[in-house]
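Technical note accompanying the year-one report. For the benefit of new consortium partners, we illustrate the data format agreed upon in the data management plan: each record pairs a sequence with a structure-token string. No post-processing was applied to the example shown here.
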Amino acid sequence: MRDFLSIADLTRNDLELLLQRARDIKRDNPMPSLAGKHLALVFQKPSLRTRVSFEVGMRQLGGEALYLTSAEVGMGVREPIKDVARVLSRYVDVIAARTFAQTDIEELAEHASVPVINALSDDEHPCQALADLLTLQEKLEDLRGVTLAYVGDGNNVAASLALGASLLGMSFHIATPPGYELAAHFIRLASENAAQSGAQLLQTNDPCEAVANADAVYTDVWASMGQESERETRRAAFQAYQINADLLSHARRRPLIMHDLPAHRGEEITDDVFESDRSVIFDQAENRLHAQKAVLHRLLVGA
């Protein structure tokens, strides 16, 4: 595990070890282990949770974090990505990048001599998925046989969740409007995982079918950063995919409610469901800190 670019790069053992390390770190609050280490945060997209959790996490582990905006770096604009990678590798011990294109993350990792973490791309959000799986473990313990239903856009969060859940033996059901399904290669990879782990993978356009046997129901915004021009078109397409009391009445259990934030209450989720006693949304947000500390520890310490 030289880098953390995609859940697809992990074995089941890798993922289980990261989750165990995150639980240990959260429970034991270990003494700093990354003293003298430096993290560069290279962001093409702004963020609340990603920036704060990485900065605080690195400092709690004894290291330092340096935040670099797109205007300061201009990765691929002011200078080639491969040059940014080689320069930063001379200054810091690890790089976390939040970009639009997955290929930018991959090129950064190819040319960097230090570990690179995918802090979000248009294709995947592995740090979020790791925090989400940690949250589900805390609430449900053994994840084998658990069903996670995702309702909304087949986006980067859905892709990483599909890969992670299927790797651990969790069934993953995703309901999207026609034309907004999870990309075919993610379905193929998740299907391969599911065949080995005994999980079930379901892609449907019917949200009621997706949530019927769910232990947890997850949603995300209908239009992500970079999709602002599609906002009205997406709002019309996604109206039947709101997480609300009516949709949840089709669930045979009382599922946990999940969202990666920020939320547009009244669009993809109603306020009453967001604030319900089944919501674990802020547990997910907190667990970004612990999950990312586990990734940093694994990449820089190796244990």
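Partners are asked to follow this layout when depositing records. Residues 128-284 form a domain with the Rossmann fold fold (CATH 3.40.50.1370).
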